[in-house]
Amino acid sequence: MGYVMRTSLSGEKAKALAELLSSQRLKRGYSIRQLAANAGVPAATVLRLERGELRAPQADTLRAVAAALGLSISDVFTTADWLPKSELPSFRPYMRAKYGALPDEGVAELQAYLDQLAAKYGVTGPIDGEDEA
Fold this sequence. Notes:
The protein contains seven helices and no strands. It has 133 residues and is mainly α. It has two domains: 11-86, 434 Repressor (Amino-terminal Domain), CATH 1.10.260; 89-121. Helix 2 packs across helix 3 (43-51) and helix 2 packs across helix 4 (59-69). The chain is elongated and about 45 Å long.
């Protein structure tokens, strides 16, 4: 599938994954046991994921939990740093695929806003034309 599976998550990535899964579970009103049952995984696995203790989760486990939560597996794998940045879509193609009805003017407004945020926080984004693929 093009995913790069790392043998273990860093503490930072395990925490980010834990926060994502926990927040989505709570948002849906599931208990840990309900999520585990819906995903077909042990409740202890969900608990360890949400605590950031499971540093080497199985890809199939993350797929099952993501599906049970209605999350994109790409979002989950990206959070776990299993999808390299080079595999992520750039802004304009992403916006065209995700929000096809959004006019070019709307995409330009979003790009301008992202440029402002990037400047504010000292983050560099794609160079001009890089996201036009």
